[in-house]
Amino acid sequence: MIYKLQKSSLKEEILQEFQRCRAKTLTLFEGMDDATFRYLAHADFSPAGWHLGHVAFTESLWILERSAKESCLYPQYRQLFAADGLPKHERVELPNIEEIYDYLDIVRKKVVNYLEIADLEDEEPLWRFLLQHESQHCETASIVLQLINNQQLSLPTPHSQFPIPHSPFPIPHSQFPIPGLPEMIEIPAGEFQMGDNSINALDNERPMHRVYLDTYYIDPYPVTCRQYKDFIEVGGYTKPKYWSECGWQWLQKANVKQPLYWQNNPAKDNHPVCGVSWYEAEAYARFVGKRLPTEAEWEKAASWNPQRKLRNIYPWGDEKIRNMHCNHNHEIGTTTPVDAYPTSKSAYGLFDTLGNVWEWTESWFDGYKGFRYYPYVGYSRVYFDKKHRVLKGGSWATRPWVLRCSFRNWYYPEVREIFAGFRCVKGGE
Q: Which residues pair with 359 in a beta bridge?
């Protein structure tokens, strides 16, 4: 449903962004059958349908209950859709899709009514947070749908696949490797501005601060499937010398021999490898005599403009993100070649830093000096446990509201279900 406001341009802008985001959410779930909606594809990921209900619950909690001081609209949903309400395996007992759609619509109508009188001088960061919250949960739902498809394809007699939305646009042509481009790009020693203080920044991106790095060298592209194939073909998954002690222990337990989303398809050779754990990324880096970048090294190479001595919001500058800039927001619906968006290089010359695949970094997820939680402790701070590695950049399923060089994602190093790849560095440290 389309809503209109008669108030300020800022309120109208926020309303339009909320409507754009919700339209993309509904497209993701369009045509989904009930079995897919509530299916537990992996013990660590809630069913896709739970994320849809959680989006409505969270919007109601923060806007209607916390800001508008209204009573809970659906108290019977509190335990089911709260992030800490039920273990994931108990989240399969969901209302049907039509009931959840009604829940979304009723909450949204009341939220729009409140926006008319909301004091955005105080509340704007909350509204920006909720846009990003919905975006993040819909990417997780996309991961769940991809896992379902993978499981169906592995069956002797597959059931009907759920079609993850694909764009009618063709995958861009690749010229990888671009002639004349160095194997690695030198990032000279010096300071840069890390993090973000803007109204869109989440708590773990704040405060912006200066960081000094020694000279290092970074790959211009994420590691491609063709490059990773070399690691597979030399028996990289069978040789302990490429793996850390923790990585080798994980490998023996996981018993895997290739990335989760691996396709032995020459047409994918120039696409980034996708569906690797941090341990797999670390092992490949050792195989080629390199290492994973720290979060600071990745962010400097992606965002810092050495000529202007300023950080860019995006690799290409501060121009608002569009489809021409990178593979994101389900516009293609799968990975693309690593050189498919040559006009969106960073100032240092890196390709494909936003969208396509998330990139693992060496860094543990932690708060910056001066960190203050927002809007609640559980969003970031509880994950400052030295058990989660930082990922940067976004994937083909990431929405524009969470695509920027300062954005920080985090997962356990053994997780390989996310749309993640990596690039490597040398020197520094």
A: 392, 421
